[in-house]
Amino acid sequence: MSPTSTAARLEPGFASAFAALCLGAVAMGISPIFVRFASADMGGVPADVGPFASAFWRVSLCLPLLYAWMRIEERHAPADAPRIRFSRASILGGIVFAGDLFFWHLAILKTTVANATFFATMAPLFVVLTVWLVLRQRVARSTFLGLALCLLGGAALIGQSLQADPTRIEGDLYGIATAFFFGMYFLAASRARKTAGAARVTFEAGLITSAILLVIAVLFDTRVIPQTGQGIAALLAMSYVSHAGGQGLLAVALGRLPATFSSLVIFLEAIAAALFGWAVLGEELTLIQALGGALILFGIWVARPKPAAQADAPFERRGTAA
């Protein structure tokens, strides 16, 4: 088996793919603001929809837009461009993304938001370890170093709010499950992009995720249909900005960038969430949090793909062909 390294060649499309990835991370980073307005009690007023229902609407409302994007993308694609419908990878992507949103909302219900967010940021760890230990592919030393720096930065961003409480261990475990499923989504979407365009992968995965989350919302939420203008507006914004924009741009980037590096860039979501929380909700930003954000940026820079001639020595699983 020929090894795959995160020290990939820098192709002309790298800059645009990296920009799409950064914009996608920012779009996903604003989602907690929309969730707050759609499914959190505000000033004694009951939440408009339940947490699982908000996850369902997040994915389903933008499906018409994603379908239109898919048709336009494929109409302008070369005749020989791969476009396998509902590949096993895209189906798996829809299933694991439903798992990601399901466990994320369980974590929020069972532990503090800070704890849930901290454990959810471990998704890149699962991506890197799966690529290295399970898929037996080479991973550059710079990727491991960048991962360590990003994890430290993520801990600094929310570490002051972390609470060690034995009664919240269940919710903390749900947070770790969130990270695992989101990591698996990265790998599934990256694989699906080899046989289909970004729009098709995002639409097909979203269709499957929506079906699963609808069942979950009906079973576990008492409020599924939004009742207020604020709730509807928040759900529409979350769907079109955070899902169509965030997941769509992520799929675009995964067609050109390694999944290991892309997962690290998603740490920008934590920075974006902190900045939006400060700008929109008036949440305090401390010097330690600012340093954590800087550490994340430095970790991403360290792990960036390099030209093959300049790539550092990779970690390699024993038994992998050279």
Automatic annotation (TrEMBL):
The keyword Membrane applies. SUPFAM superfamilies: Multidrug resistance efflux transporter EmrE (SSF103481). It holds the Pfam family EamA. Keywords: Membrane, Transmembrane, Transmembrane helix. It comes from the Bacteria. Residues 19-153, 171-302 form the EamA domain. The chain crosses the membrane at residues 12-37, 49-69, 89-107, 113-135, 142-161, 173-189, 201-220, 232-254, 261-281, 287-303. This is DMT family transporter.
